[in-house]
Description:
single chain, alpha/beta, 12 helices, 10% strand, disordered N terminus
Amino acid sequence: xxxxxxxxxxxxxxxxxxxxxxxxxxxxxxxxDAWEPPLPVTTPRRNRRFSDLFGYCDxxxxxxxxxxxxxxxxxxxxxxxxxxxxxxxxSVSLYTYLDDILEPNxxxxxxxxxxxxxxxxxxxxxxxxxxxxxxxxxxxxxxxxHAPTACCSCTDxxxxxxxxxxxxxxxxxxxxxxxxxxxxxxxxxxxRLEPLKIFPHLSxxxxxxxxxxxxxxxxxxxxxxxxxxxxxxxxxxSSMLALDVNAAVAQYIAQSGHIPAILTSLxxxxxxxxxxxxxxxxxxxxxxxxxxxxxSHSRSLDWEECLWRTWLEDRGRFGHLNISVAMQKxxxxxxxxxxxxxxxxxxxxxxxxxxxxxxxxxxxxxxxRRGKKHLQWIKTFCRQTIEHSLKT
Length: 392
């Protein structure tokens, strides 16, 4: 028996390997021809991280990216409204800034208001605008708007020569409220006041009332002052001023004009002040002389309440000008019954004012050391002055 040769056995092996590979190919092709579900097609999402926003070099591309990233319609409208508001705000701010640069003097005159505007701010306690005549003589505003304006009052029976001498001695802006007893004699009164027109900074106002609180008249004179600082003279214009009063007051205003000051020759400044002592204030000082009914009008007593209210507002931090201003004769002595009733009304007014001021201080600052110190000062001062008003 003959054995097969090596060549024949190799051909058999090669045939078998070829057949096996063909079977594998057929098996693989049959599996590949089977149906498979297609993969879902998705669009690439934009990366909404903030780092991508800062990666843009161009601001317009960043805005476009932000617009496309906001898929909500309401968010897009909100963005449009914000952009419009920003554009309007920037335009208004730029216009205001350029207007201040082009007109530097406008900011200095913003505080000045016309006579009609001033009259519209007067409360109903004052006479109606048809009775009160502001600026019967209108003075011109001085170049220095911080110059002190002398605010005072007088009656229509005053000597015009005395009024002219007083104005000449003051040598500055003056605001005078003149009370008249007979409104029908207005023409003759204006003719008698003609010589006052030689003073360019004198403003005179007519008030056809006689029995009126002196504090109301002083408030009107201060209200119509044409400069930023005033000096209230509560006494009648029956005596002359010192020659250096205006210069001393102007120097004080230049150094510390925001602090009220008293004109008196006393070195020890404490309350109560000397009767009818003039006071230096800014025209827009937050405190005005009280116009409350105190049963009987008296220049010295009403003025004492004005000084008391101002002293309380600044907690006794008053300036002092060593200037002696001569006053008129001593005021008449009131009957005991009138003084007693007036003291009761005065004490009630002071008690109500102190109560409101203490509540305001507690709301603003009552926990800090400074706030507690101010509150204690108010309580002590109010207790002393209220007891003093009851005893006098």
